Amino acid sequence: MKNLSLKNLGKVTYYDLNNEINIPVDNQIPLNKDQEALAAFIQENVQPNTKKFATLQERFDFLIAHNYIEREFIEQYDFSFIEKLYQYLKDQDFHFKSFMAAYKFYAQYALKTDDNEFYLENFIDRVAMNALYFANGNEQLALDLANEIIHQRYQPATPSFLNAGRKRRGELVSCFLIQSTDDMNTIGRTINSALQLSRIGGGVGINLSNLRGAGDPIKGIEGAASGVVPVMKLLEDSFSYSNQLGQRQGAGVVYLSVFHPDIIQFLSAKKENADEKIRLKTLSLGVTVPDKFYELTQKNEDMYLFSPYDVEREYHTPFSYVDITAEYDNMVANDQIHKQKINARELEDEISKLQQESGYPYIVNIDTANRDNPIDGKIVMSNLCSEIMQVQTPATVDNEQHYQQMGIDVSCNLGSTNIVNQMASPDFGHSIEAMVRALTFVTDTSNIDVVPTIQNGNHLSHSIGLGAMGLHSYFAKNHMTYGSKEAVEFTGVYFMLLNYWTLKASNDIARERQETFHNFDKSDYANGSYFDKYLTTDFGPQSDKVKTLFDGIFIPTAADWATLKDNVMKDGLYNQNRLAVAPNGSISYINDTTSSLHPIINRIEERQEKKIGKIYYPAPYLSNDTIPYYQSAYDIDMRKVINIYAAAQEHVDQSLSLTLFMRSTIPEGLYEWKDGRTNKMTTRDLNILRHYAYNKGIKSIYYIRTFTDDQDEIGANQCESCVI
């Protein structure tokens, strides 16, 4: 597109107007310039470039006839209902609140003609497509979803929002998790799966912990195995090749246990000075960390790395499925298991050094995840953004690449609440129910047949991941300091409500369909123990400030939780997993809110937009009134961020994408352990924060983002597929 316009419009004014936001007037931010840029964009770009139709019927006839939208889901509705839905949406008088919101929508989400000459839809049209598509013929649900999305209480994930209703579309799901076992057939199948999933779209997480280490025997030949790094190189090349016709870089993350013998080589492959033969340029790294590692580092003891090949022979199960914390001493004492000794703190420092240099690796506290997991089975990894945590089972593949034993892998069906708008919902619970039903439609209709283990896992689990965005916006709007006691309390109550209402909705669906997720009867939901903490602890508002914020919103009592417990034990749950908080991305701009749960980086964000230069985006609700509450993440004690995420994690069955923001020169007084020491960020700082997060019950840490002294950012989010 030229000038973001679909035709060459010549001189436009909106870029210049937007850029004037960055030029103070009388020491004030001229926020009015953003509104002027928005108005100019609509007038100069959107209106002249939107294809006009005489009637709604003519528009739909054109879109169907020219293969822009699917006929089948439209024909589920009487056209008079579609007209009624459109009239309702128009009556809501939706307007974008910022230039960035409108720009992002029309650049990335609006349907365009094949020749790229015209926009074929505005925001109302895209909302209508989503509501009609996800309601699957249910008129009331279509109206409910239209209500939630037009008021921006609910935001479907990018692939869902973008592709709903389109005839030529990608998948509706955001990302995938697969794993390899320790044989060449499965490794080959894993590489093929990575190619196929990257072609479809979305990020791919791959667990390699089960693979034998470098030097392990192959068919009795000692020292024959090459280890995990060559497999990582093959995967990186696969993602580079399978890039959706060049539209996007294929994105993947590989996970490895911190007790795997290749862990040092694994980390070294991401270093800037790594040998080109092993260096990974685009593949992300994640490390699964059991409790035992934290114990050994705290005691400053040596640790043993164990041969996965020997462990699997001794335990008759792949390495990832062995509880290392429980079995560590037995494995050390077992002479049949080859092992090597290193110092635990030295490895911890290596992890922190790499995080300073690149932002990687992500950290998954795997024992924490499994301790809190109410589902029968074992979590062994996460996804590209570290918020998905679901049980998996390994597969075995024969010489003809057929599955001898079908495994269970994971696809991510994501959506997000917009906290500011959701708190203003006329019916909090009804809003959440509509969202759960929309996400359930995605899992019900998703059919990733090119990777049978993904398809199998989705059909068995019906898992979804509803999350949240806009937490810092909500705090600023309500004059709350990020990380304050009241902010932590609010976060806990909000996510308790998400938990309650998603459980209730999933229970209703199970009752309606007389169907539960696979192995429900073996879960902590079925035996009722999951609900015990809600019967004995009051998670409702405690302080006057937070009570006021939730005034008029139903807060379940212990009696309400007891009723829900009885209903779930009786009729089950349809969705195995319900909640997860993704990092968000461009979609939060369209919602005119801050992304995810983390603090903003700048009050006026400067974004480099490919061909057109810089666009400035003022923080939502920014005013003289809210400026004091919009402190940069780089100037906030990360323990406050961890506390916020821990308050949410208490009620989230999966995980949350927690990014830590550090300056390479630490502001004075931020961390007491820096007193009398260097003010430069060190590995010790990251070690302390990781242990703090672990002790607060955090399941995963996503990127470490470092703001350097020369104004550069290391570890900025590169995952466009999962940042809903």
From TrEMBL:
Pfam family, one: RNR_N
Residue stretches making up the Ribonucleotide reductase large subunit domain: 561-583
Keyword Nucleotide-binding: yes
CDD domains xrefs: RNR_I
Main enzyme class: oxidoreductase
Coiled-coil parts of chain: 330-357
PROSITE patterns with a match to the protein in the record: RIBORED_LARGE
Entry similarity comment: Belongs to the ribonucleoside diphosphate reductase large chain family.
Protein name: Ribonucleoside-diphosphate reductase
Organism encoding this protein: Paucilactobacillus vaccinostercus DSM 20634
Lineage: Bacteria, Bacillati, Bacillota, Bacilli, Lactobacillales
